[in-house]
């Protein structure tokens, strides 16, 4: 991959560019085998129709980032973008709830 970028097709009639720096940067920052304590609430939203990122990664991330208040929130009809009105309403509602609880 010297200087050249590979292309991985995505769901948006386009491609993700994958270059050497992305691979090396990703390997440098691997976290899934670590434990990281977080002193804030965590919410993991995952669409069950996500064909890009398997749901196992939401579970693995929730076991890596440790918080007293942590939830995995599954979106039945959600895809990778979680951009439908229903998805955005749920995400927005959860953000509002978290902000209100800070007060």
Overview of this structure, please?
- It is a single chain.
- The chain is built from 3 helices and 6 strands; from the N terminus they run ββαββαββα.
- It has 103 residues and is of the alpha/beta class.
- It has 2 domains: 30 residues, no CATH class; 69 residues, no CATH class.
- A two-stranded antiparallel sheet has the order 1-2.
- A hairpin with a 5-residue loop joins strand 1 and strand 2.
- It starts with 5 loop residues before the first strand and ends with a helix.
- The mean pLDDT is 90.
Question: What's the gist of this structure?
Answer:
The chain has 103 residues and is an alpha/beta fold.
Q: Main attributes?
A:
two-stranded antiparallel sheet, 103 residues, globular, two-stranded parallel sheet, single chain, alpha/beta
Unreliable stretches, pLDDT < 50, 5 or more residues?
A: none
Number of strands: 6
Strand order of the biggest β-sheet: 1-2
Structural class of the helices, strands and pairings?
alpha/beta
Q: Give the fraction of residues assigned to helices.
A: 25-40%
CA-CA gap between termini: 50 Å
Instruction: Choose one word for the global shape.
Output: globular
* Count of DSSP H/I helices: 3
Largest sheet: 2 strands, antiparallel
Q: What integer is the average pLDDT?
A: 90
Number of domains: 2
SSE arrangement, N to C: EEHEEHEEH
- Rg over CA atoms, rounded to whole Å, is 17 Å
Strand content: 15-25%
């Amino acid at each position: 991959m010297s200087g050249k970028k590979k292309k991985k097709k995505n769901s948006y009639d386009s491609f993700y560019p994958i270059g050497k720096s992305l691979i090396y940067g990703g390997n440098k920052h691997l976290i899934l085998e670590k434990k990281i304590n977080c002193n804030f609430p965590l919410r993991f939203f995952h669409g069950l129709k996500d064909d890009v990122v398997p749901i196992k990664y939401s579970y693995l991330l929730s076991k890596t980032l440790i918080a007293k208040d942590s939830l995995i929130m599954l979106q039945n009809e959600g895809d990778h973008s979680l951009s439908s009105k229903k998805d955005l309403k749920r995400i927005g509602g959860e953000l509002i709830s978290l902000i209100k609880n800070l007060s």
